[in-house]
Specification:
By secondary structure, the protein is of the alpha+beta class. 30% of the residues lie in helices and 29% in strands. The longest helix is centred in the N-terminal third of the chain and has 16 residues.
Length: 207
């Protein structure tokens, strides 16, 4: 396996998306045919993991959303202000190219999404995900996400949990057991493939 790092950055029109091939045709089609329109219309933001030769190894999307207070577990909602809903960030899509599976890239992208959401100047209570199947539910639950009582495949993680780690400057070591560094661009991060293969158990976050 190459020890070259992945760079995580915003998608731009100059990147070749045509060869991206995850195990989901729906997610492949979205990246190759739809995402540019959604980005242009400011419906979503798309972040991609790039190899040194600018091949897209994986991607995820973020967009604004909200959670109805009544949909949250009572143990959590009773601690929140009595508004009808709370603001949140939705990670609508997460996919890894088949050539890069088994390296922990999916978890690294999730960690990157959590970092961005928790550091945004726009307030949000949680990161929300919609798991496509039972395996995806297990993936998110392993990383500390909580299922909505009446919608088992919609899960959330309070960003306050992440913010506590971020303020300690140990976020990615704690949540991903993965080395990370800032590039000159604030929109890019570097993940080392050798570290992506390490165990991710230490970042099973619990709210």
């Amino acid at each position: 396996m190459s020890k070259s790092p992945f760079r995580v950055r915003l998608l731009d029109k100059d990147l070749d998306r045509s060869d991206f091939a995850s195990n989901s045709e729906v997610l492949n089609r979205y990246l190759t045919q739809q995402v540019s329109q959604d980005v242009r219309r400011r419906i979503t933001a798309c972040f991609v993991a790039l190899t040194p030769n600018n091949r897209i190894a994986g991607y995820y999307t973020l967009a604004s959303t909200s959670l109805l207070l009544g949909d949250l577990p009572v143990s959590i909602s009773k601690k929140l202000p009595r508004y009808p809903s709370v603001p949140a960030v939705r990670m609508g899509r997460l996919a890894v190219d088949k050539d890069f599976e088994g390296q922990g890239l999916g978890s690294a992208l999730l960690a990157d999404a959590l970092y961005r959401a928790s550091n945004s100047e726009i307030a949000a209570y949680a990161l929300v995900v919609d798991a496509k199947d039972i395996a995806a539910v297990g993936f998110y639950r392993h990383h500390g996400f909580i299922a909505l009582p009446d919608s088992a495949r919609t899960l959330f993680l309070p960003l306050q949990t992440v913010a506590k780690l971020v303020t300690q400057a140990d976020f990615l070591r704690a949540v991903a057991a993965t080395n990370w560094e800032e590039e000159a661009s604030a929109e890019a991060r570097v993940w080392d493939e050798a570290d992506l293969s390490s165990s991710l158990d230490p970042w099973a976050l619990k709210p």
